[in-house]
């Protein structure tokens, strides 16, 4: 039986993942587990004991520990107890835990760790303990990465702690592709970048010579689709993330293509194609380029997004007189309208869990990021501002990232995230203006 706490809720890859020997368990009354609901707002108090230096850790010791703490507390689910309150500290990574000392400061969970640098790699070890049952929560684990990628090892450790305490899939070791913006508001220069989920380590995939919009990861994170105006007209382009090689898709004189996304298996690309003054949704074979229309209506059909099983597509259409959301079979056919509120709806994105659709809604002069169930029920607004738009889901379907733009000639676009309860909205710590994020998969 779980003991529950209710709350509302780079690139040489990590080279090793290993389980460390478990420490002896003590008396227990069930493992600690945090349950994410809409009900109570009380983050779980956790302690993160000072990490041990097991050789050459130097500058990495503090950085690793702080990054793990930032990942966990950034979810809004956990509150770190300050180290000034600690009664005792483990003498070594394998030292017995003085559970009574951690109970006395009301720590529900305790994280211990160690860092070393060996052979050009940063090695991060951690253990997690349920303080009140007096037992380890799973085996200790060890991750290593090149010194230039030490953040990935820290994210991996934080991911494991998050997963054990929530029962949810993690999302810290992941990347976001986005559009970086510079220059005056009426003449923005835009380029595509990829960064860590928390805004660190930005890398540029294009220059600012042509307007670029709406980058979207492939399911494996190795390719990017985006819309380029390099030819003077919007056109879908496919980029290889490692080589940066590009290939224009669906080139057809006199047409415009935009709003592309991959199918969950990466085989298909769904996008909007404007020709002869009409815009419909098309599907393209990513390997052969063969395409076919999925809609055929005089209205504007755009922003398609597959369900995670690949069987359905949600999209935006003004066929009812104003933009609303519709769901149809992935093979086309008669769509079903799922949004019926005042104002207009757009940029729908299906959750990777399959349970919700996130969208942008404009009503009463304000923009909102919202979520609804896939049949349109349970609509809930998560944000409100002058201009919020373009939601994207974390790999575990628990957090939505979006663009927020401020008003006025000096207004800028920034990236923000919010969990699906509408709580814990936070800015992404990227140094500069940015828009149109797309959250990639958890890295291997």
UniProtKB/TrEMBL annotation:
Its main location: periplasm. GO terms for cellular component: periplasmic space. It holds the Pfam family TolB_N. GO terms for biological process: cell division; protein import. InterPro entries: 6-blade_b-propeller_TolB-like, Tol-Pal_TolB, TolB_N, WD40. Residues 32-136 form the TolB N-terminal domain. The keyword ATP-binding does not apply. Keywords: Cell cycle, Cell division, Periplasm, Signal. It is found in: Periplasm. Residues 1-27 form the signal peptide. The keyword Lipid metabolism does not apply. Coiled coil: none annotated. Part of the Tol-Pal system, which plays a role in outer membrane invagination during cell division and is important for maintaining outer membrane integrity. PANTHER family: PROTEIN TOLB (PTHR36842:SF1), PROTEIN TOLB HOMOLOG (PTHR36842). HAMAP family: TolB. Belongs to the TolB family. The Tol-Pal system is composed of five core proteins: the inner membrane proteins TolA, TolQ and TolR, the periplasmic protein TolB and the outer membrane protein Pal. They form a network linking the inner and outer membranes and the peptidoglycan layer. This is Tol-Pal system protein TolB. The gene is tolB.
